[in-house]
Amino acid sequence: MCQVGEDYGEPAPREPPRREQKCVKCKEAQPVVVIRAGDAFCRGCFKAFYIHKFRAMLGKNRLIFPGEKVLLAWSGGPSSSSMVWQVLEGLSQDSAKRLRFVPGVIFIDGILASVGRTPGVFTLALRSAPGRIPFPRGKWQISHSSSRKHRLAERGLEGFPLGEVAPHPAWLFSACGRSPEERAKTLAEVKPILQAIGFPWHVVALEEVFSLPPSVLRCSSQEPAAPEGAYKAAVDSFLQQQRVLPQPRVQPPRDPQSLVRPPAAAQTEALSHLFCSVRTLTAKEELLQTLRVHLILHVARAHGYSKVMTGDSCTRLAIKLMTNLALGRGLGAWRPGFSDERHGDVVVVRPMREHTLKEVAFYNRLFSVPCVFTPAVDTKAPEKASIHRLMEAFILRLQTQFPSTVSTVCRTSEKLVKAPRDGPAAGDCGPRCLLCMCALDIDTADSATAFGVQTSHLSQIHSPTPLTETGTPQGPCCSPGGAWAQGCCQRSSRREDPQACIVEQLCYGCRVNMKDLPSLEPLPQYILAEAQLRTQRAWVLAELRDCLIEDSDDEVGQS
Amino acid sequence: MAAPLSVEVEFGGGAELLFDGIKKHQVTLPGQEEPWDIRNLLVWIKKNLLKERPELFIQGDSVRPGILVLINDADWELLGELDYQLQDQDSVLFISTLHGG
């Protein structure tokens, strides 16, 4: 029994694994990599372990049916490259163990890179009121890599001396577009890999967010969950067909030049303007992530893919979970499980969710998996540049001292369940955030929460003006309870204000992000249009609800 | 007294950005009193190869968390990490796992 004052002493230090020891699995070969906390694996056993984890993840969660079209989201980075390679190897195995779905690959071109705009100065923006957070003092070495030096030299800004940068209340880490040469170089590296892989591929420029339809933000109705035996029955029937019919050959890739069109200069300019107007790196990263998800969803729906596979590894998911908690997203926005069903008809799955970044990096190196390195928005960003970076540094530092940190965070997150809410907000039919499509946790009675305060604050901003536009009188038209109680009378004036239209459709996390955009005008049109539509629809619904004699669910649903 | 050593130092996963974009460096470590181990190598790299942002590569005595070190294609944890004594013609690879997805 544990007692106060009893001396337990230090735990016996664990012997680090040595090269002279044998692989823990086969006990024969020399180990090459240490996995988890001290298990040394040889090359062969490591490969088997890695592949087995991938296949087991797919097999355990019986979500992908035989013959289903699955879109692989490939960023060029190590995790997604590894995932694509696993799928490729899985499809080419002998028939009993072969993967049975039909893959396609999507690559989004034009992910932004960080470029210092102000000559010689890198500045940082932190998500807080100016002046409240202490900034690192002292000398900051100001230098640039040779590639960027070349570009800056063209503008006559060469030669940056070591200088002392005094702390400044607002530090801006600016991230703008990459040059066309850099993009062309990346594409030149990407295309041969896509051709070698052999799946149908889609290279989409990030600028295409400006051509997305508002329907991408609507959560399409989900297929009802298949009954228990349906998966097994589908597999049996598929295998039977395979025995009877000859094997179809994998489709050869389409003609490359039909798929890659350079984006219009106006769109590139608009994208650059949007991201340059965002004040903090945190908001930039969040916005980028949101736009990428929308783009992938659109392509998946357009080409008939019902599943999207992303290469999120265990480490990344642990970091993402903690970052989301820090950003105020809670559990509504993003579940860290195998599948993400927020978008309804398209389900996002994460087959790499039990692989750590170390395992991925080792596998890619030992077995020569091709990757394409593309600088991102936060490349070379200092540790405190954004909440994402801070959380990444925190988790990774903890992981070096406590090797089970990441796996514990992931496993614990699986056990977290959101408490069921009463009322119409629960379930698919409740309102959803415009951008991240999580269920909006609206409870206007609960003004003690930050969200409740924001909601009431919003209605106070647009203070009641005489409603001459619609002529609707104030007073008993507001129905008590429900999502729109506080804003009803001000809604008609707010309908005309696009900023308010968008903000009131967002969850708390997305609202906090939007605060870092001085104006919501540069956002792509589909977001503005859908926000307008939803606000109008809600207003009409509320108006009609007042007119009904009997407030029954059937009648409201029909109107 | 350590003789001069010729080692290949390689960077991957985005770490090469801190080294002028060059992935492979064939380096000759000068002879010195103490034997060359990874600890000394890191100091040498910081002084001679690292072009910018040392805090993104090195933290204190060791590499930043998130950067893997492979010595002759084997995990450095099997070889003693910072205390591994370098041999001639060794290959040391630093992979940054922090970039990409």
From TrEMBL, chain A:
Protein name: Cytoplasmic tRNA 2-thiolation protein 2
Entry keywords, A to Z: Cytoplasm, tRNA processing
Cellular component terms (Gene Ontology): cytosol; protein-containing complex
GO biological process: protein urmylation; tRNA wobble position uridine thiolation
Localisation per UniProt entry: Cytoplasm
Gene: CTU2
Quaternary organization: Component of a complex at least composed of URM1, CTU2/NCS2 and CTU1/ATPBD3.
Organism: Aotus nancymaae (Ma's night monkey)
Protein's pathway: tRNA modification; 5-methoxycarbonylmethyl-2-thiouridine-tRNA biosynthesis
Automatic annotation (TrEMBL), chain B:
Crosslinked positions (Glycyl lysine isopeptide (Gly-Lys) (interchain with K-? in acceptor proteins)): G101
Sorted UniProt keywords: Cytoplasm, Isopeptide bond, tRNA processing, Ubl conjugation pathway
GO terms of molecular function: protein tag activity
The record's account of how the chain is modified after translation: C-terminal thiocarboxylation occurs in 2 steps, it is first acyl-adenylated (-COAMP) via the hesA/moeB/thiF part of MOCS3, then thiocarboxylated (-COSH) via the rhodanese domain of MOCS3.
Pathway the protein acts in: tRNA modification; 5-methoxycarbonylmethyl-2-thiouridine-tRNA biosynthesis
Highest rank taxon of the organism: Eukaryota
Cellular component GO terms held in the UniProt record: cytosol; nucleus
Residue positions where 1-thioglycine is found in the record: G101
SUPFAM superfamilies in UniProt: MoaD/ThiS
Compartments where located: Cytoplasm
A GO biological process held by the record: protein urmylation
Record InterPro entries: Beta-grasp_dom_sf, Mopterin_synth/thiamin_S_b, Urm1
Function: Acts as a sulfur carrier required for 2-thiolation of mcm(5)S(2)U at tRNA wobble positions of cytosolic tRNA(Lys), tRNA(Glu) and tRNA(Gln). Serves as sulfur donor in tRNA 2-thiolation reaction by being thiocarboxylated (-COSH) at its C-terminus by MOCS3. The sulfur is then transferred to tRNA to form 2-thiolation of mcm(5)S(2)U. Also acts as a ubiquitin-like protein (UBL) that is covalently conjugated via an isopeptide bond to lysine residues of target proteins such as MOCS3, ATPBD3, CTU2, USP15 and CAS.
Subunit relationships: Component of a complex at least composed of URM1, CTU2/NCS2 and CTU1/ATPBD3.
Entry-linked PANTHER family: RURM1 PROTEIN
Family per record: Belongs to the URM1 family.
Protein name: Ubiquitin-related modifier 1
